[in-house]
């Protein structure tokens, strides 16, 4: 069963936040005449969830435009939810109970008795296990479903090693004593329960299964659902690998999304929901409280277009408020949940913070008519200005800002543009000002490594084996090596050549901005991983190792050994946290 449905179109405003039992959810009401059907999104875990998160928001927007309300939420101990408390329900039952409770919240908020469940990955396994507890479920969608817990954990372990290798994380800093990926740790009791699970069919009227060609278990699930009496729409999950490999370059499977919205639309009965049962949701969400912090999910900006979380200390507040910027297309919880960890630890020391998604990132919809590629775009300065307006309205200025990678670029551009910002901690910036001649997408996909990294890799036996098997792009590797040599020459020559550059050059603009920040006493903390490609661009303007920065009394620079670009190892995160904390105290 499948009806025609709308293309995926963005909403103008962010969804409405709510809190329940230590968890955070986002409810998207229907923007069209509502029918007695609402959708509950049940997420995967880990890096896959980071990639899927924005997709859920896009689907929620499209469903809303088609008359279907929805709710998406974080499991206990993940995303913005509180950490799992001692004495809580243990094992997989904890996340299963979260789903049941979220479904009850959705019915209350939407006024709908009937729900459909949309799930992916591990979320599909959980949804299959609790479906009978949800009552009146019109249909179940399983995208790339996990059906064998043991096989899933084995695959997750391999994927985790590939991520660690790709990031260049030293062996001593890799997590080996726990199920993990990209700095995220799965609770041991939950992993132990998952290992025992094998799921097949379950009783449901309609099912939608997006199958991966190389995973027989996906199609076996579709067949099992048919045997149990379901009307199953089975499709090929085209583009799955490109979707879940890396949130920075993730390609959203729009065709899958459009077919899914059409399928959900076909589940609606002709009877609209009674107006008196549809919640206006006028009450603000309650605060989440931890040992020494309180958090409130908020929307701000025009029409509440931006979504974030305000974190404040339970005790006396001190220091400037920190604006924690996301990185690339990662949600505001941060890579490896680092944004959440930073905010709560800062609150423990009396420092407030706001972490949020910029437009077209995570849970914040794009600006109508805005650019599709928002990384390194001047349009993001409007989002930071909106965050500062919000903090000013709730009397939480002065503020400083922090970010990594593209977030550090935005942090630097923001402190240059906004005098309300008293300082910035920027980690691994690719550049301080974007050269308009560069294509952002090309740079993201092909940013070359530094020269000595190629030398190290060439000496590895595994690299030689791959070369013999024809698995190495020799031409591409050689081209990048030539570029690396050219950059090294350029690094030494540019500081000399820049002395003769005109006042309108990119170099003179950047130097002028650093001088202006010193003149207004805006503090700058620069953090680089020791092999980060951003050091090449730093050297082009300030010499090898940034030695020319010594002329600016307001700049403090730190080089982190054994750290990847994402600052995944614990020691790197701690150094970043200390720099942010010191900045907040300095600029009180």
Automatic annotation (TrEMBL):
Keywords: Hydrolase. The keyword Heme does not apply. The keyword Nuclease does not apply. It comes from the Bacteria. GO terms for molecular function: hydrolase activity. InterPro entries: AB_hydrolase_Est10, AB_hydrolase_fold. This is Alpha/beta hydrolase. It comes from Ciceribacter sichuanensis.
């Amino acid at each position: 069963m499948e009806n025609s449905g709308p293309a995926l179109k963005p909403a103008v405003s962010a969804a409405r936040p709510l809190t329940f039992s230590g968890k955070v959810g986002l409810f998207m009401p229907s923007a069209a005449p509502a029918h007695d059907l609402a959708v509950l999104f049940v997420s995967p875990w880990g890096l896959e969830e980071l990639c899927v998160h924005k997709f859920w928001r896009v689907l929620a927007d499209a469903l809303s435009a088609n008359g279907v309300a929805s709710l998406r939420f974080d499991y206990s101990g993940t995303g913005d939810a509180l950490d799992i408390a001692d004495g809580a329900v243990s094992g997989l039952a904890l996340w299963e109970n979260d789903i049941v409770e979220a479904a009850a919240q959705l019915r209350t908020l939407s006024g709908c008795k009937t729900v459909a469940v949309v799930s992916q990955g591990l979320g599909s396994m959980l949804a299959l296990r609790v479906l009978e507890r949800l009552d009146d479920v019109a249909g179940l969608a399983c995208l790339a479903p996990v059906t064998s817990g043991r096989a899933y954990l084995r695959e997750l372990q391999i994927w985790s090693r590939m991520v660690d290798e790709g990031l260049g994380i030293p062996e001593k800093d890799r997590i080996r004593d726990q199920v993990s990926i990209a700095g995220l740790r799965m609770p041991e009791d939950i992993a132990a329960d998952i290992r025992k699970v094998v799921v097949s069919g379950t009783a449901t009227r309609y099912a939608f299964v997006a199958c991966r060609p190389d995973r027989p278990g996906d199609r076996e699930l579709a067949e099992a659902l048919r045997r149990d009496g379901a009307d199953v729409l089975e499709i090929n999950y085209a583009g799955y690998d490109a979707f879940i490999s890396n949130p920075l370059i993730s390609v959203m499977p729009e065709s899958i999304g459009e077919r899914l919205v059409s399928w959900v639309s076909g589940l609606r009965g002709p009877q609209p929901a009674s107006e008196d049962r549809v919640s206006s949701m006028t009450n603000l969400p309650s605060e989440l409280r931890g040992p020494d912090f309180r958090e409130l999910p908020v929307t701000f900006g025009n029409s509440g277009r931006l979504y974030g979380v305000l974190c404040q200390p339970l005790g006396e507040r001190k220091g400037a408020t920190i604006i924690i910027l996301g990185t690339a297309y990662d949600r505001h919880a941060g890579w490896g949940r680092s944004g959440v960890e930073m905010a709560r630890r800062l609150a423990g020391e009396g420092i407030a913070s706001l972490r949020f998604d910029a437009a077209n990132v995570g849970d914040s919809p794009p600006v109508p008519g805005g650019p599709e590629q928002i990384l390194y775009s001047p349009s993001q300065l409007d989002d930071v200005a909106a965050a500062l307006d919000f903090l000013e309205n709730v009397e939480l200025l002065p503020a400083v800002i922090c970010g990594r990678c593209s977030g550090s670029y935005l942090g630097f551009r923001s402190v240059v543009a906004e005098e309300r910002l008293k300082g910035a901690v920027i980690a691994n910036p690719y550049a301080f000002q974007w050269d308009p001649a560069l294509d952002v997408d090309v740079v993201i996909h092909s940013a070359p490594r530094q020269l000595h990294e190629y030398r190290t890799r060439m000496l590895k036996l595994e690299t030689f084996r791959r070369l013999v098997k024809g698995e190495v792009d020799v031409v591409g590797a050689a081209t990048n090596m030539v570029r690396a040599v050219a950059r090294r020459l350029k690094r030494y020559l540019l500081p000399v050549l820049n002395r003769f550059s005109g006042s309108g050059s990119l170099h003179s603009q950047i130097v002028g901005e650093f001088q202006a920040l010193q003149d207004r006493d805006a503090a700058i903390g620069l953090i680089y991983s020791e092999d980060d490609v951003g050091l090449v661009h730093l050297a082009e303007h300030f010499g090898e190792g940034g030695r020319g920065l010594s002329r600016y009394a307001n700049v403090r620079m730190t080089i982190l050994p054994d750290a990847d670009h994402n600052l995944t190892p614990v020691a790197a995160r701690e150094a970043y946290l200390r720099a942010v904390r010191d900045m907040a105290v300095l600029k009180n």
